[in-house]
UniProtKB/TrEMBL annotation, chain B:
Location in or out of the cell: Cell membrane
Protein name: ABC transporter permease
Pfam families: BPD_transp_2
Lineage, uppermost ranks: Bacteria, Pseudomonadati, Pseudomonadota, Betaproteobacteria, Burkholderiales
Keyword tags: Amino-acid transport, Cell membrane, Membrane, Transmembrane, Transmembrane helix, Transport
GO cellular component, one term: plasma membrane
Entry-linked CDD domains: TM_PBP1_LivH_like
GO biological process: amino acid transport
Membrane topology: Multi-pass membrane protein
Superkingdom per UniProt: Bacteria
Main location: membrane
Organism: Ramlibacter tataouinensis
GO MF annotation list: transmembrane transporter activity
Length: 337, 289
């Protein structure tokens, strides 16, 4: 038997929906264990910290996609645009002398939010198909621009000579990736807490409402355009921060940060992990990157084959991704007791 | 061939090729409301089938084309039955993911079967070289493309407007439930329409080996072009698809001749702009797109 949630004194006798909101806000034991496990990774796998940072960064990127795709229901094929903008912003700043990592993150966040705001207007009008095409188009446009502007971006060779200063002026990045991991984990955790607070709040509920039934959302007074516009902007900001983190931890920006493949990959990560579940992106990124690491060793083309099979099977048979499946399992185990 | 008329001619030939490949996509996107990003896979299948038939099996170029059409149409039956049908009513996101997955598998399969290099194709004597028309030296192969494109466009319009099967398609698209009540097997009608569209894609892919090239990444590289034609033209409309294909063919060719350093930038910018101006396409069926 689960204990009924404790009701704080000032909420005794409050209407049930308030108690439900309250319940959504509470951190469950599984969640706390998840973050403790991420801290433990630092001590348990000291040799794989660079790889672990990549997983966290991809997880943050997938979380940003989750905001617009999982919560708000906007299908996009060009999310890498914002990731790339963040990566290039941080990289270019570092190349031109601004080496402080946090300043780089802040600049990337601003650039991403600006780009998100700018593109939110065309993206939010029209049907799914028009959205797909416009997001795909904007992504390709940026890729092509970065490809042609070799003087600024280095073109296909990528941006070389990125040097990042120590975090907070104290901790210099080391070759084993210890500082990188701690830095990435800190940033990701802070942003996650922000996203979580936003998504369990009534604001997050209105997003789900828009996704499930736009007409009803409008009828109960949800400002649909404004909601979608600002969640899109926020998502772009998060994606840009993820891109900047990648630049800072690898000290390099490749043009593939803007590519279609990256947009497709993050989509797969999120779907495999499970949408609208906050943790889906992280779980999906871990599954995806570890599988890629193992399978791409054999041959990159065969990795593409297995990725395709994964996509087909997960759309046909897997509802809710890994996290959804685990929750389903947990609910059944609990029900049996 | 740098004269304006020459560029126009090349552009129209290219546009006809785009039309051939894209018109089937227009069916799945516009009529069946299925976001089929894997359409280029059928074009690629057609290309590889042609290369294999003319190269290894030693069948003539012209004789191979009908085989390619039938082969890719048959292939589409299998794919529709196994993969597309369960997701007709699913959210668009699922359709996107499924079809992107099909692209990835196809890329890997083509690399496994034929290797990563560009495939050569032998064009018969009758279609190589140039022929003088009104003082312009026109490539025979491009004349063939224009001829086939026009024939297919006419056949499609005639088929849709004047035949019983065309009437069934139009009825199924306009109001599925009423069509079903009248005894039309809507599922089978769509399946056949899809097969014809995929067959045409295969034909276009086969004819396009000479122009677009053929390698395992074909479906990803060309995805944007085909989507572009359909979305700009208005999904579900044959004349719209033709118009958009010709426009984009000419624009892309002109861009390659006059502004080669801009690369694909122009075509992507044109797409975003056109979509902003016409969210449901130039000649779109407003209700569906």
């Amino acid at each position: 038997m689960m204990l009924p949630p404790r009701v704080p004194a000032h909420l005794v006798g409050a209407p049930p929906y308030l108690l439900q909101l309250r319940q959504r806000e509470r951190w469950s034991a599984a969640e706390i264990a998840f973050w403790i496990a991420l801290v433990a990774v630092y001590f348990v796998f000291p040799k794989n910290l660079l790889f672990a940072s990549q997983i966290l960064i991809s997880g943050l990127f997938a979380l940003s996609l989750d905001l617009i795709l999982g919560y708000a229901g906007i299908v996009t094929l060009g999310h890498a645009a914002f990731f790339g903008i963040g990566a290039y912003t941080a990289g270019l700043l570092a190349v031109h002398g601004v080496r402080d990592p946090l300043a780089g993150l802040a600049a990337a966040a601003c650039a991403g939010a600006f780009a998100g705001r700018l593109t939110s207007f065309p993206v939010l009008r029209g049907s799914d198909l028009a959205r797909l095409m416009i997001t795909l188009g904007i992504g390709l446009l940026l890729y092509e621009a970065a490809n042609r502007a070799t003087a600024l971006t280095g073109g296909v060779d990528g941006l070389q000579g990125v040097e990042i200063g120590p975090v907070l002026g104290l901790f210099a990045f080391d070759l084993k990736g210890r500082v990188a991991y701690a830095y990435v984990l800190g940033v990701v955790f802070v942003l996650f807490v922000l996203v979580r607070a936003l998504m369990v709040s009534p604001y997050g509920l209105t997003l789900a409402c828009i996704r499930e039934n736009p007409k009803r959302a409008q009828a109960i007074g949800v400002p649909i355009g404004a909601r979608l516009g600002n969640v899109y902007t926020f998502s772009a900001l998060l994606a840009a921060v993820a891109g900047a983190l990648l630049t800072q931890t690898t000290q390099f920006v490749g043009i593939d940060t803007l590519g279609f493949q990256r947009s497709a990959d993050v989509l797969v990560m999120l779907i495999v992990g499970g949408t609208a579940r906050l943790y889906g992106g992280f779980v999906g990124a871990a599954v995806f990157l570890i599988a890629q690491d193992r399978l791409a060793d054999l041959n990159p083309v065969y990795w593409l084959f297995w990725l395709g099979i994964l996509l087909i099977v997960s759309t046909l048979y897997l509802e809710g991704g890994v996290v959804g499946g685990l929750r389903h399992l947990a609910a059944r185990v609990r029900g049996r007791r | 061939m740098h004269s304006f008329l020459g560029v126009l001619f090349d552009g129209i030939a290219y546009g006809m090729l785009l039309f051939l490949v894209s018109v089937g996509l227009s069916v799945t996107l516009g009529m069946m409301n299925f976001i089929n990003l894997a359409h280029g896979v059928f074009a690629m299948a057609g290309g590889y089938l042609l290369v294999t038939l003319t190269g290894k099996a030693g069948i003539g170029f012209l004789a191979a084309l009908p085989i390619v059409f039938v082969g890719t149409a048959a292939f589409s039956f299998v794919v529709e039955r196994l993969l597309y049908r369960p997701l007709y009513r699913a959210p668009h996101l699922k359709q996107v993911l499924l079809t992107v997955g099909i692209i990835f598998v196809a890329v890997a399969a083509a690399t496994y079967g034929w290797g990563p290099q560009q495939q050569p194709v032998v064009v018969p004597e009758a279609f190589s070289g140039q022929v003088p028309v009104f003082g312009l030296e026109l490539s025979r192969y491009r004349l063939l493309l224009i001829g086939v494109g026009l024939a297919v466009a006419l056949a499609l319009v005639f088929g849709l407007e004047r035949t019983r099967f065309g009437a069934r398609i139009r009825a199924s698209v306009d109001r599925q439930s009423t069509a079903e009540a009248l005894g039309i097997h809507v599922g089978r009608v769509f399946q056949l329409t899809l097969a014809i569209g995929c067959g045409l894609a295969g034909l276009g892919g086969a004819l396009g080996v000479n122009v677009l090239g053929l390698d395992p990444y074909f479906p990803l590289k060309t995805l944007v072009y085909f989507l572009l034609v359909v979305v700009v033209g208005g999904a579900g409309s044959v004349p719209g698809t033709l118009l958009a294909a010709l426009l984009l063919g000419v624009a892309d060719t002109a861009g390659k001749y006059y502004l080669p350093e801009a690369g694909a930038f122009i075509i992507y910018a044109a797409m975003v702009l056109l979509l902003l101006l016409f969210p449901s396409g130039l000649l779109g069926r407003r209700r569906l797109a």
